[in-house]
Write a structure and sequence with these properties.
This protein is of the alpha/beta class. It folds into 2 domains: 10-74, Helix Hairpins; 101-305, no CATH class. 41% of the residues lie in helices and 17% in strands. The strands form 2 sheets. A 7-stranded mixed β-sheet has the order 1-2-3-4-7-9-8, sandwiched between helices. Strands 5-6 form a two-stranded antiparallel sheet.
């Protein structure tokens, strides 16, 4: 959770300055444990965050490694590896395993927007030596950090779907309206059905209320927007979707898989990232399976009609 551009740092969670000495850090950890423990009225999710923060900075070696990777060292450029790649786009590696058919660039639009805006914000359009420098990203406005978090979430989902094999086809960054940002992150055609997927990372735990994500970090109505996009694509391609899937980081959900029933007429599931592969293999409850010649017909219709954002 601490690797998200939106998440609080380990120091933020413990309530100390990154320059705090070891004794101050230790006292802050003990205080935060008491404050967040569920037995004393604290939230379990925050209590777990405090424990995880301590594992990252509680020893000298762990703290030094964390500071190097997250931009908290005194001289970031001098000590962090030059090729640090935590938030960079992943580099394709040779892989001879059968993989899902893939179209479009996952996270591509969000990365382009992030790079444009962070250069305007930090360098007034001047090329930055490293736009992914953790110290730089951490200082950026939340709107810019959110773009990078979205790109990373979409890329993580893409890797999971790719490993499901040749029986699956996925289209990334699919246009779903007249506006450039009206899109569905992923459209996945699987033997278990046809699904529209939203990949999100809001930087912390979220809840569902009345079929929508709620929380301090939630902007707008993500599930409603996903379903609206699914309907647009369904009409254009003359295909029937089996459901909508919202994917969140494992630490940010209470249940690994939460069936939300029909939301605005579409079967909807909230899934932890680690459970996505199983959801796609098993299918959404009530979604019609697609097999035989039908899967080829649906794929052809989508290939002909889908546009990329």
């Amino acid at each position: 959770m601490f690797d998200s551009p939106l998440s609080a740092s380990a120091y933020d969670v413990l309530g100390v300055d990154p320059t705090a000495d070891d004794e101050v850090l230790r006292k802050a950890y003990r205080l935060r444990l008491r404050q967040t423990h569920p037995d004393t009225g604290g939230e379990a999710a925050v209590f777990i965050q405090v424990q995880q923060a301590w594992t990252l900075v509680g020893t000298a070696d762990a703290r030094a490694a964390y500071d190097r990777g997250h931009g908290f060292e005194a001289d970031s450029s001098a000590t962090r590896p030059a090729q640090w790649s935590g938030w960079r786009a992943s580099t394709a590696r040779p892989d001879n395993r059968p993989r899902a058919r893939s179209h479009g660039q996952p996270g591509g639009r969000r990365r382009e927007q992030f790079l444009t805006l962070i250069r305007e914000w930090a360098g007034r359009g001047v090329d930055l030596p490293d736009p992914y420098d953790p110290a730089l990203v951490r200082r950026a406005p939340i709107e810019i950090r959110r773009l990078l978090a979205d790109a990373l979430a979409e890329e993580a989902t893409a890797r999971i779907v790719a490993e499901l094999g040749m029986g699956y086809t996925v289209w990334h960054d699919v246009a779903a309206g007249r506006q450039p940002d009206e899109k569905v992150d992923h459209v996945v055609l699987a033997p278990s059905g046809l699904y529209g997927i939203l990949s999100e990372d809001l930087g912390g735990p979220v809840r569902v209320r009345r079929g929508e994500l709620v929380g301090d970090a939630v902007a707008g109505a993500p599930i409603a927007d996903l379903i609206a996009g699914i309907r647009t694509i369904s009409r254009a391609a003359h295909v029937r979707f089996g459901g909508a899937i919202v994917v969140l980081p494992d630490d940010d959900v209470v249940q690994t898989v939460e069936e939300l029933g029909k939301v605005r007429g579409v079967r909807t599931v909230l899934a932890a990232r680690g459970a996505l592969a199983n959801v796609l293999r098993r299918g959404v409850s009530g979604a019609p399976e697609i097999g035989g010649n039908e899967i080829f017909d649906v794929r052809t219709r989508l290939d002909r009609s889908l546009r990329f954002a």
